């Protein structure tokens, strides 16, 4: 059977136009602001220009103004967008909005899609996803969820504390995961709620000072205190939140990988340019064996990451959970991207450490990916468990 990893012609053309847009429009803005967009003017201007270029919102359905790409199609386009730290923001495919759009399109009611998804897909508003909690609450183990929602007249009252809620500053709404039955540690009993940003029971506690800064809207600690929502704020079915989370988390892990892979390619291009031009010890830097090894290892990590992403995306597109494939791809890519950027910085020497180029910023941005969306250690544990279960099942046949 023939294996063709090339994207469909229409997807390839969109990826080409995305690459052109990112290099000509986004990279100069990124360099001007050192990789961090801090104002709405920057965000809205970039998105306006992306719409004009016809590359905006490639992931959402045509009915919501997007291109309706499947996961394999997204892999090609998102990688090109990720070539700049601000590329995903410009195309409206940055976390957490991109994952929330995917979730809303999959499980929201028509009314909820009109109220929340349509303006989000258009870039008119932003959103966040409130799941992670301070210890001993939900983190790597979602079942530790402590935020609780209790029934009240006409709706629900949510109480709990969340932290590391990306994009919460200025978000028009949050998708909040709260426990509606059971106790922390129980595998079920969670429900998703749509909470408007101006709800008086939703309060910002603080901005968390973090290593990374490029994700728009920061990482925020939130307090839900007597936060009352109506029954139509329930997203999906009551007590099914953990199941719905899988609709979002598997694809979101892969889209993170796609975007960071684009940035790894950028780092490799910067290092290759430096190695081709810099002369020392009587030759070009790129003619030294140790530098060649780093360039080659970068290419290997980039190619292997892309292959694992495509494998996981193919499984997702077939309708499977792809749990093993997404865990493998996420773990490998998170570590490979770090290695690529780190080697690129090493090749560039003092220039790489300086603020004259963005490799130092790239390094700070990619390091947390080994923790976000599940630490590498948690994924390795899950990967090994699945392998052992498969072995035990085969042994009993």
UniProtKB/TrEMBL annotation:
Keyword check for Flavoprotein: yes
Signal peptide segment: none
SUPFAM superfamilies recorded: Acyl-CoA dehydrogenase C-terminal domain-like, Acyl-CoA dehydrogenase NM domain-like
Residue span(s) of domain Acyl-CoA oxidase/dehydrogenase middle: 128-208
Regions crossing the membrane: none
Family: Belongs to the acyl-CoA dehydrogenase family.
Protein name: Acyl-CoA dehydrogenase family protein
């Amino acid at each position: 059977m023939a294996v063709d990893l090339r994207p469909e012609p229409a997807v390839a053309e969109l990826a080409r136009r995305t690459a052109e847009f990112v290099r000509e429009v986004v990279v100069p803005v990124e360099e001007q602001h050192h990789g961090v967009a801090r104002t709405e003017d920057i965000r809205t201007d970039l998105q306006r220009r992306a719409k004009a270029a016809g590359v905006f919102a490639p992931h959402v359905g045509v009915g919501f103004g997007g291109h309706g790409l499947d996961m394999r199609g997204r892999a090609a386009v998102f990688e090109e967008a990720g070539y700049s730290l601000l590329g995903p923001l410009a195309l409206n495919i940055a976390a957490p909005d991109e994952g929330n759009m995917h979730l809303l399109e999959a499980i929201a009611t028509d009314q909820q899609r009109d109220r929340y998804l349509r303006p989000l897909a258009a870039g008119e508003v932003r959103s966040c996803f409130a799941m992670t909690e301070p210890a001993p609450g939900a983190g790597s183990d979602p079942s530790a969820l402590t935020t609780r929602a209790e029934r009240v007249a006409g709706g629900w009252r949510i109480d709990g504390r969340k932290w590391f809620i990306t994009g919460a500053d200025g978000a028009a709404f949050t998708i909040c995961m709260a426990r509606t039955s059971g106790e922390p540690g129980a595998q079920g009993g969670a429900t998703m709620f749509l909470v408007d940003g101006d709800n008086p029971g939703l309060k910002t506690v603080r901005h968390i000072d973090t290593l990374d800064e490029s994700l728009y809207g920061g990482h925020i600690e939130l307090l839900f205190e007597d936060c009352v929502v109506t029954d139509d704020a329930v997203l999906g079915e009551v007590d099914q939140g953990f199941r719905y989370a899988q609709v979002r988390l598997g694809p979101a892990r892969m889209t993170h990988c796609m975007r960071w892979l684009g940035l790894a390619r950028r780092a490799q291009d910067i290092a290759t340019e430096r190695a081709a031009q810099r002369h020392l010890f009587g030759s070009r830097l790129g003619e030294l064996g140790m530098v060649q090894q780093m360039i080659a290892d970068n290419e290997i990590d980039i190619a292997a990451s892309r292959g694992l992403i495509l494998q996981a995306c193919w499984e997702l597109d077939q309708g499977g959970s792809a749990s093993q494939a997404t865990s493998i791809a996420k773990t490998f890519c998170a570590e490979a991207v770090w290695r690529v950027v780190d080697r690129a910085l090493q090749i560039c020497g003092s220039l790489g450490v300086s603020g004259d180029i963005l490799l130092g910023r790239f390094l700070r941005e990619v390091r947390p990916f080994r923790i976000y969306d599940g630490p590498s250690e948690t994924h390795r544990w899950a990967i090994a468990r699945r392998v052992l279960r498969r072995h035990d099942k085969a042994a009993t046949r």
